[in-house]
Amino acid sequence: MNEKLIVVLGGGESGVGTAILAKKMGFKVFLSDSGIIKDKYRDILNSHNINFEENSHTKDIILKADEVVKSPGIPDTSLIVQELKEKGTSIISEIEFASRYTSAKLICVTGSNGKTTTVNLIYHILKSAGLNVGLCGNVGNSFALQVAEKDFDYYVLELSSFQLEGLIEFRADIAVLLNITPDHLDRYNNDMQEYINAKMRIIRNQRVNDSFIYWEDDPIVTREIEKLKPEVTCYPFGEFKKEHTVGYTENGKLFINTKGNMFNMELELLALEGMHNVYNSLASGIVAKLMDITDDQLRISLSDFQGVPHRLEKVATVRGVQYINDSKATNVNSCWYALKSMRSKTVLILGGTDKGNDYSEIDDLVRSKARALIFLGKDNSKLHTFFDGKVEEIRDASSMKEAVDLAYKLAQKGDVVLLSPCCASFDLFKNYEDRGDQFKECVRNL
């Protein structure tokens, strides 16, 4: 038994997976959560005989840790983290910890928008091609749990900025950066550069034999690459072909040029609609070609992929009005993409926990496309301040049922009712999934 004490802060998916892996690796393990641990996770900890506490942090134990693995949701500003830092204790993320115990190839995806769709698409392509691959990070079972219990040759990881913060020696074999737009600024002292720095950590430690795939039309990303001058091999993609573009569109087709092979496919055959999904398909396709997936296999996977729940998910058409669940749009840029892909007048439901949002990004689209706005949140004052007077009909709702009933009355035949909140869900719902599920249920009950 290794006498080293690993303390895990946070008893959710990430923390519990870490505790299981640490125990398997022979460490002494203690898990601490300042809140209540869900029954499901409490049962798992008990079945693995892992010592844990909830509703408190016992400093006497925590400060004795040789290393602390912190769940991504816990900010650096929390008191216990501050005390550990003062003591000089090594604090890392679950992703960093788990990566020490696997020799699998790591394909890592980040970006303010499109991460979940892209990791699921890459996973779908690789799995359909017969590779032994796991999907984890910000989706599904935690990376640490899969390293402890499975034996995959490849992992596709969705990495949020919070998860990237705790990376030190971690190295992605293939890194994908889709875009960087303002998000989570409340976590980053309202300093956009701090958020950008967290996102750019995805290329930390990458070497010339590794791959970095990025959207070259993003001014922030291109500026950072010029500044950082990483030695990694770059594979830029964009809407149109420029000097170094590897993936692009032309004459209604998608093109990917890697390893001397030119893959092409009609855009209308892609499973996912909208320009933002063309980018997600380009990024995923470049990954596939770098991993020698055949053209035929890639074509099939890009055309038969089933989208991600809560992301522009078509729910039902009721009396000629289509209802779309985009509950995963927890920032303004996500809502911008959703509105951009609407072809009809739209009744837009938005609101929730504001993360320092700037709504001017969707101002023009709301004016041109929105028939009505429904604000669904505990405090809609910021939304009213920005949007009042710009759209004829603006209503407030304090529950999902009220919002859907209002939308039903306001929408006209041929319209779309779109739930694309721009905000986190924690004021009225457990999470964005709960918000989307409630929307779907209310729509089906119309």
UniProtKB/TrEMBL annotation:
It catalyses: UDP-N-acetyl-alpha-D-muramoyl-L-alanine + D-glutamate + ATP = UDP-N-acetyl-alpha-D-muramoyl-L-alanyl-D-glutamate + ADP + phosphate + H(+). It comes from the Bacteria. ATP binds at G111, S112, N113, G114, K115, T116, T117. GO terms for biological process: cell division; cell wall organization; peptidoglycan biosynthetic process; regulation of cell shape. One of its GO terms (molecular function) is UDP-N-acetylmuramoylalanine-D-glutamate ligase activity. Residues 109-287 form the Mur ligase central domain. Its main location: cytoplasm. Gene3D superfamilies: Mur ligase, C-terminal domain, Mur-like, catalytic domain, NAD(P)-binding Rossmann-like Domain. One of its GO terms (cellular component) is cytoplasm. It is found in: Cytoplasm. Its EC number is 6.3.2.9. Keywords: ATP-binding, Cell cycle, Cell division, Cell shape, Cell wall biogenesis/degradation, Cytoplasm, Ligase, Nucleotide-binding, Peptidoglycan synthesis. Pfam families: Mur_ligase_C, Mur_ligase_M, MurD_N. It is an enzyme of class 6 (ligase). Pathway: Cell wall biogenesis; peptidoglycan biosynthesis. Coiled coil: none annotated. Residues 310-422 form the Mur ligase C-terminal domain. Cell wall formation. Catalyzes the addition of glutamate to the nucleotide precursor UDP-N-acetylmuramoyl-L-alanine (UMA). Belongs to the MurCDEF family. This is UDP-N-acetylmuramoylalanine--D-glutamate ligase. It comes from Fermentimonas caenicola.
